[in-house]
């Protein structure tokens, strides 16, 4: 998914992640694919962070109080999407995650 010139950096980033962190990223990307979200290079970092928060709120259901582990995974997801210079417009329903 990374832009060609960013693949090495993105691969190094992913190699340093735990299994649960990789699963979180895969879950987000899978939910976006299931919802036919569009990939775009023009979305701001702030919008990506907002989309990730929306995804997590829908994934966990009510409350939206993020634990430390979830916040950490959300930050890693944001960094991953920034590193590969792609972002995903999220419009995910709770059951898709």
Structure overview:
This protein has 97 residues and is mainly α. It has one domain (4-91). It contains 4 helices and 2 strands, in the order ααβααβ.
Low-confidence stretches: 89-97
What summary fits the major beta sheet? Answer: 2 strands, antiparallel
Name the structural class: mainly alpha
- Give the helices and strands as they follow along the chain: HHEHHE
Rg calculated over all Cα atoms: 13 Å
Specify the helix fraction band: 55-70%
Task: Give the total of domains.
Answer: 1
Q: Which strand order spans the largest sheet, edge to edge or round the barrel?
A: 1-2
From the spread of the alpha carbons, the general shape counts as globular
**Cα distance, first to last residue?**
19 Å
What is the overall number of helices?
A: 4
How many DSSP E strands? 2
What proportion of the residues form beta strands (DSSP E)? under 5%
Write the layout of secondary structure elements.
Elements: H1 7-15, H2 19-34, E1 39-40, H3 45-60, H4 68-83, E2 87-88
Antiparallel strand pairs: 1-2
Helix pairs in contact: 2-4, 3-4
